[in-house]
Design a protein that fits this description.
CATH class of the largest domain: Alpha Beta
InterPro entries: Glyco_trans_1, Glyco_trans_4-like_N
Strand order of the largest sheet: 3-2-1-4-5-6-7
Number of helices: 17
CATH architecture of the largest domain: 3-Layer(aba) Sandwich
Organism: Rubricoccus marinus
Order of helices and strands: EHHEHEHEHEHHEHEEHEHEHEHEHEHHHH
Shape: globular
Pfam families: Glyco_trans_4_2, Glycos_transf_1
Protein name: Glycosyltransferase family 1 protein
GO molecular function: glycosyltransferase activity
Length: about 375
């Protein structure tokens, strides 16, 4: 089969969906990648994928520009003529589904990896966006198979009526190669608390910086490290000036983008993601769990699927630097507690979030969507590595 992946960034396809694409190729299928062209398109092409550049805005709801994007996607689908399309990220789900219907694509998979601010926020702006988005989602998802990464998002859209007569499935996360991310002991030396991810305020960068100052008042040798690239085109971006101010305080380091996340995560004693809004299931937390690091995350959809409170880590309220600092102090002061949570985290990652498990579950959705879909039993990266 010819299967097209669509996302609103090439970064997403490269970092989160290459394992699935590889498994499809091993099973004898052809995969076409489509997204706005960025720095990762060449990497996908170097790995042998056909890449199609298509313009999709990452933010905004301008009806004129969005309809133009649907028309561009419709043209792409008619040209590529995929047997199946798999949409990732909410914007691509909406626009891609409308385009697929216009192009007559029969088999459509829509992956909801977090509903974000519109469904997590309680303010007037969030409620207004939510009211406008629900009927659009209802129309877009009709006739497709929908895959959720966490049960909270699935329950939200079920309760809203969006999923009426729409087949929907729960597959937690995008999968991590647990053989590549093997269990390792925590490092010697001063304790390191790490926040890996894109440098966005919604990822909790400000909360992390506030907690760093509080923790270092009690444990001055503790190091707080941000790992990830700036994303200054994003409306929620931490700018370079912001980062200079944060690191200028002397409490936080910024390591920037790191290619080898396995080796980077091994330098941490605790991995932290104090996101403000709902996530799918954050891959960085799964990777950290896989190598055996205790986790601290916010009590929001997605994070609590991998951060099991007082088992694999600690959950705190969003936007609460004091609560975050208290949780981090509890872990940094108790090495035995960190070891117990690390072992639990590794066990959960192996049991529930391995690449093999996620790919097998995704292939089952493909089979339900397109009965002609055939797979190889050795299709996962772990099985063929």
């Amino acid at each position: 089969m010819r299967i097209l992946f669509l996302a609103n960034t090439d970064w997403y396809l490269y970092n989160f969906r290459q394992d699935l694409a590889h498994a499809l190729r091993v099973a004898g299928h052809e995969v076409v990648m489509a997204a706005p062209r960025g720095e990762f398109a060449k990497r996908l092409e170097a790995d042998g994928y056909e890449f199609r550049a298509v313009e999709i805005s990452r933010q905004g709801l301008n009806p004129v520009s969005e309809f133009a994007a649907v028309r561009r996607l419709e043209a792409l689908y008619r040209e590529v003529q995929p047997d199946m399309v798999h949409h990732f990220t909410l914007k691509a789900v909406v626009l891609g589904s409308l385009a697929a219907r216009r192009a007559g694509i029969e088999h459509v998979i829509n992956a909801i990896a977090g509903l974000g601010y519109a469904f997590s926020g309680d303010g007037l702006k969030a409620r207004t966006i939510r009211r406008g988005l629900l009927p659009v989602l209802r129309r877009a998802l009709a006739g497709s198979n929908v895959v959720f990464q966490n049960p909270d998002d699935q329950a939200t859209l079920r309760a809203s009526g969006v999923l009426e007569d729409v087949p929907n499935h729960l597959i937690k996360g995008s999968g991590v190669d647990i053989s590549a991310f093997a269990m390792t002991p925590e490092p010697e030396g001063d304790p390191v608390v790490m926040l890996p991810g894109r440098m966005l305020w919604s990822k909790g960068v400000g909360t992390f910086a506030g907690a760093a100052e509080r923790v270092r008042f009690h444990l001055p040798l503790a190091r707080f490290v941000l790992v990830g690239s700036l994303d200054e085109e994003h409306p929620d971006a931490v700018t370079r000036e912001d980062m200079e101010r944060i690191t200028g305080s002397g409490h936080v380091e910024w390591w920037g983008f790191q290619e080898a996340m396995n080796a980077t995560l091994q330098q941490a004693h605790v991995v932290c993601l104090p996101s403000r809004y709902g996530e799918g299931v954050p891959r960085v937390l799964i990777e950290a769990a896989a190598i055996g690091r205790p986790l601290v995350g916010t009590d929001i959809p997605g994070c609590r699927e991998i951060v099991i409170d007082h088992k694999t880590g600690l959950l705190v309220r969003p936007r609460d630097a004091t609560a975050l600092s208290e949780a981090l102090l509890e872990l940094l002061r108790d090495r035995d507690l960190r070891r117990r949570m690390a072992a639990n985290a590794r066990a959960l990652a192996v049991r529930r979030f391995s690449t093999t498990t996620v790919i097998e579950e995704t292939f089952e959705v493909y089979r339900k969507t397109a009965p002609g879909f055939l797979t190889s039993v050795s299709a996962s990266p772990e099985a063929v590595s």
